[in-house]
Amino acid sequence: MFAGIDLGTSGVKTVLVDEAQRVIGDAHAALEVSRPHPGWSEQDPEAWWRAAEETLDALATRFPAEMAALSAIGLSGQMHGATLLDASDAVLRPAILWNDGRSAAECAALEERADFRGIGGNIVMPGFTAPKLEWVRAHEPEIFARVAKVLLPKDYLRLKLSGEHVSDLSDSAGTLWLDLAGRRWSPALLEATGLAEAQMPRLVEGSAPGGALRRELCARWGITGAAPVIAGGGGDNAASACGVGAVAPGTGFLSLGTSGVVFVATAGPAANPGRAVHTFCHAVPGTWHQMGVTLSATDSLNWLSEITGQSAARLAELAAVQPCSEADPLFLPYLSGERTPHNDPGARGAFTGLSRSTDTGALARAVLGGVAASLADCLDALKESGTEPALLYAVGGGARSDYWLQAIADAGQVTIALPGKGDFGAAIGAARLAICATGTSPAEVMTRPAPEREITPRAGTDWPERLARYRAAYPGVAHA
Prior knowledge:
Blueprint lengths: L1 E6 L3 E7 L5 E8 L11 E2 L1 H18 L1 H5 L3 E6 L5 E3 L9 E2 L7 H10 L2 H5 L8 H11 L1 H4 L4 E3 L1 H10 L3 E3 H5 L4 E2 L4 E2 L1 H6 L9 E3 L4 E4 L2 H6 L8 E3 L2 E2 H9 L7 E5 L3 E7 L11 E4 L6 E7 L3 H11 L3 H8 L10 E3 L17 E3 L7 H25 L6 E5 L6 H11 L2 E5 L6 H12 L4 H4 L5 E5 L7 H10 L8
Parallel strand pairs: 1-5, 5-14, 5-15, 9-12, 16-22, 22-23
Antiparallel strand pairs: 1-2, 2-3, 4-7, 6-8, 10-11, 13-14, 16-17, 17-19, 18-19, 20-21, 23-24
Helix pairs in contact: 1-7, 3-5, 11-16, 12-14, 13-14, 14-15
């Protein structure tokens, strides 16, 4: 038996699978985000651990025989979060999350100090971990002076599970301290933020062992025999790629979660940082990936849900009642700034073209259309870097809306496949990495599901004209 734990922004999900990758059961525990100032985003690492404990306790109660036979655990998690620990592994401050924009000023300073683009393969952006630490050094020097270890969110769970400071290469590539081609920590990039390799976790491949479960936790969850191995795991997107089988170069997926991601596996660390395309190590050996990211995908729909009192699912239904028209407003989905292609943490959302006749359905169409336009920007940026997927598997909560997927296919001129019945998210990818950590090859484990159906771009839509309107509504940014 194998478990996969996915630490998301809004909650922890844990799945239990058997040797044939059949899902035996799953459990979920919710998390909350603290936003103490505009543009800030934080969480308490202890809340992550309590949520993970809750899910594992639930599975041990519901499936005691299966948990007793657990042989490996895989980890996945939200990337980039700065979890700062002192010499006794005590948390020094709330973790600064991936969608926190406070370190914009520090990014320019870091670009001047070291070759982050050449060695790390990416522009220095506020979302990454390195500028977060530079912000702490500048604004909280007493905290910075006590930092003994910097862990990513999922690796804090690993510490609580195993007592070890370990991280995988896919997640660590998102810190901006990794030598991307060499798949190792870069002394030069660490030095640029006043840190040393001793303050970093040990690195392993995502499909390799990265610790073992503490004996007291084995007893708590009724696990008999040898302590389960904990796989290196992966950042949430790399783990999702493992879940949907996007590990061979050229394969990819579209994720419609809190953020929106276009992910494509690559054979090497090709980079195009000028358009804010991200290049990271994959969670399997000898493989990398590129991706474009829009920070507010379903988060935009959830925001509209909060202010209208309609559920996100109901808003998606209202959007599909009638097709878009020229009378519909536009929506810029930059509620938390933007990554690809703008690299602008100060960007903010906006409705334009509102009229007295605008109703809730029109607002919903505008929000879904705005995210589709942003993802088309991501696809354009990937194409400029030489990465053009022929097919993207759709995962995440937003993939339940055919209307939204069709808008993305039309705007981005890309074919989107819906996998057959089953779970193909990051928790499943983490469980697959757990299987690999016991000796099975990734090629054998990470097969692609047969598509249930495909959504192809339609000819003759108004999307070329609508994209021009969206891009004109965001002045001062170069567009393809």
